[in-house]
Amino acid sequence: MSSFLGRMKEYPTVSLDRFDRENLHARAYFLSHCHKDHMKGLKGPLLKRKLQFSRTVRLYCSFVTKELLLNNPKYSFWEEYIVPLELESPTQISLVDEASGEKEDIVVTLLPAGHCPGSVMFLFEGCRGNVLYTGDFRFAVGDTSRIEHLHSGSRVKDIQSVYLDSTFYDPRFYQIPTREVCLNGILELVGNWIGQSSHHVVWLNCKAAYGYEYLFTNLGEEFNTQIHVNSLAMFKKMPEILSYVTTDRRTQIHACRHPKDEEFFLGNRLPCGCTSADGTPLRIISIKPSTMWFGERTKKTNVIIKTGASSYRACFSFHSSYSEIRDFLSYLQPVNVYPSVIPIGRTMTEVTQMLKLMCRKRSDQEAFTYKPLGVLKRSRAERPTYDSGSEDELFEGLDLAPVRKKMGLNQDGLKENLPERTSAPVSVDEPSALTVAEVQSVSCNYVDCTESNGEEEDDEDEAKETESKDMVTDSEAPKWEDFFTTEMLTDSQNSQSQSSRMSGSQTPELFSDKEEETPDIADDFSLTLSASLSNHSSQNMDSSLPDTLILRPEQQLGDATTKTNEPSESQVSSDFDVPSTPESKVPHPDELSQLYRKLASGEEVELRKGSAVSR
Fold first, then answer.
1. Nearest to 84 by CA among 105, 106, 60
2. What are this entry's molecular-function GO terms (predicted)?
3. Stretch (H or E) spanning 94
4. φ/ψ bin of 307: left (φ > 0), alpha (ψ from -120 to 50), beta (otherwise)
5. Which of 150, 126, 136, 96 is nearest to 11 (CA)?
6. 124 backbone dihedrals φ, ψ, rounded to 5°
């Protein structure tokens, strides 16, 4: 009983032998043969609806499987969606996503599986490697080496994964007799029985609707007779089988079926109810082909075992034995093997562990590992080359970290001299003065790859340019200490400065390149003294600094007197927060008003040393 869920890891857009659940989203379907455990969901309403609205989804199988499938009226709706493929003929199939238009091409080859009429294996070849899906198969030891399409010339193809029919991958089924050996045992038993009289009849108790055609054809040819079956419809387009089966009950070998066939047999009747023409009771024996029953035997047995007065078990297998599977895998040596069936009494973990022993060894696996072009981006360790005798001069007494430099595309001569290594450099004749920082920097030296898109490198260049500009700006900007001497402020002056900052003042940089405007008054300006005043103040640097007053007129000169009486926000928080000159006094409002009038009329302003007026 197949436990395969329908999806392969390498090609997840196709579904095999499973047509329900997540498989409803597949872009293509594959059917290995027409046994019910491989046809789940094949006649489901959801799948039928999908086919009606799809233009690209198809079912791929062999010609025999197509005829067997369409013979059942329940699957007749598949007729326009089935694409039969020739055996051992590679066919390219396009897997199209109808929503996005994405397309993937794969090559599929159908290989005979030896399980039942129409049964095939699927070999997928594409960008994700070669994958083999066996379905149900029966290969004898040595059969794999005779399959042409598993070889490329004289060598076995590199198989990435095998999805394996592991029905009998259990040491209990180590050796299953070949079909020829089993057939010979059945032929001997049948011949001895029907040869006694025309009333001696054999009933083949076959549990499957079809799959025993190998027995039918060989029995019919050996005894020159036909085997009775319920219907010929499934064999109409298989002439090689049709001539060996019949619906005429007057034959000595029957393979007819009935829902209660066991009850018929216990009553010494055939499932079809056939009796002799002269009323003579029929002498009937049943032969039940089986494999599982023989695998449960603890002792070595014959091919034919008598289990009752008139019942026999015949060893006949549709699946490969444990030793045959090992021969199959050891010849292909795939990287991965995934079981499709869990043997009775085993778990998935146990079977998986046993199959891992048949996979390609790790050393061999690495040799076949696919490596994309992205490997070219790998870091390459290189030692910087210098002229002879220059190393000691460069690194003597210095702790330098060499700068990573990009190699230009036109420096072909320099590339030839660089050692090409992909591993860490071996320290041979290295200067003793090299520091740890230098070694780490050298080991991370990258060589630019021509395959790279260069986006990350462009970002690095921009960041470096921005950083260099910032460094230049910071180095060229003048400092306050270059022009003025630093003096410690008193506690009162510190508190005054802090209160002005908290009031929301904005102090512009004195030596910035751009002029900043105050947000409160657009037409603010500062009244300065003449150049002679500046010269006078510079001549008296040794003595006390001249008193200075920074004047800031309001929008209307007439409101100056009113605003001096009521301290406004502009007076409390000046845009130019300069502390008061030592030994100075706060000017009186009357003095300020008088000073404003003189300035407005253009009169000269007299400065008095030690006065409250300062600039």
1. 60
2. 5'-3' DNA exonuclease activity; damaged DNA binding; endonuclease activity
3. strand 91-96
4. alpha
5. 126
6. -100, 130
Beta bridge partners of 151: 156
What's the burial of 230, exposed, middle or buried (CB within 10 Å: 0-12/13-18/19+)? middle
Question: What does the DSSP assignment read for 268-315?
Answer: T--TT----TT-PPPEEEEEEEESHHHHT-SS---SEEE-SSSEEEEE
| Contact indicator for 10, 124 with CB cutoff of 8 Å | yes
Residue 475, token pair as written in the block: 């180095």
Q: For residues 75, 77, 83 and 84, what is the CA-based torsion angle, rounded to 10 degrees? A: 30
Backbone angles phi, psi at 222, to 5 degrees: -70, -40
| Helix 213-223 with 179-194: angle, nearest 10 deg | 50
Of 18, 22, 24, 14, the closest CA to residue 6 belongs to: 18
Q: What are the structure tokens assigned to 518, written together?
A: 């105050």
Q: Which two tokens stand for residue 476?
A: 């060229």
Rounded CA separation 74/76 (Å) = 6
Exposure on the CB side of residue 364, measured as CA atoms within 13 A: 12
CA angle 78, 84, 90 (to 5 degrees): 145
DSSP state of 27: S
Residue 366 CB: number of other CB atoms within 10 A? 9
Q: Which tokens in the block code for residue 132?
A: 């083999």
Domains of the chain with CATH codes: 14-173+322-357 (3.60.15.10), 179-315 (3.40.50.12650)
Separation between Cα atoms, residue 120 and residue 357, nearest integer Å: 26
Sign of the CA dihedral with 145 first, then 151, 154, and 160 last: negative
Contact 133, 122 (CB under 8 A): yes
> What integer pLDDT is reported at residue 595 of this predicted model?
83
A 10 A CB-CB count for 373 gives: 8
Determine the Cα–Cα distance for residues 386 and 383; give it in Å rounded to an integer. Answer: 10
pLDDT tens-place string over residues 214-273: 999 999 999 999 999 998 988 888 888 999 999 999 999 999 987 666 666 666 678 888
Say which residue, 172 or 129, is predicted with more confidence: 129
Per the CB < 8 A criterion, the answer to whether 148 and 119 are in contact is no
From CA 222, how far away is CA 187, in angstroms rounded? Answer: 8
Confidence of residue 477 (pLDDT cuts 50, 70, 90): low
| pLDDT value at 435 more than 70 | no
Residue with tokens 């049948």: 190
Determine the Cα–Cα distance for residues 52 and 496; give it in Å rounded to an integer. Answer: 87
Which residues contact residue 301 at a Cβ distance below 8 angstroms, ignoring those fewer than 6 apart? 294
Give residue-wise pLDDT tens across range 366-377: 444 444 444 444
pLDDT in tens, 376-414: 444 444 444 444 444 444 444 444 444 444 444 444 444
φ, ψ for residue 310 (rounded to 5)?
-140, 25
Measured CA to CA in angstroms, residue 86 lies from 60, 301, 437 at distances of: 10, 41, 67
**Predicted confidence band of residue 299 (pLDDT cuts 50, 70, 90):** low
DSSP code, position 391: H
Q: What is the largest CA-CA distance in the chain?
A: 158
Using CA atoms, how far apart are residues 357 and 321, in angstroms rounded to an integer? Answer: 17
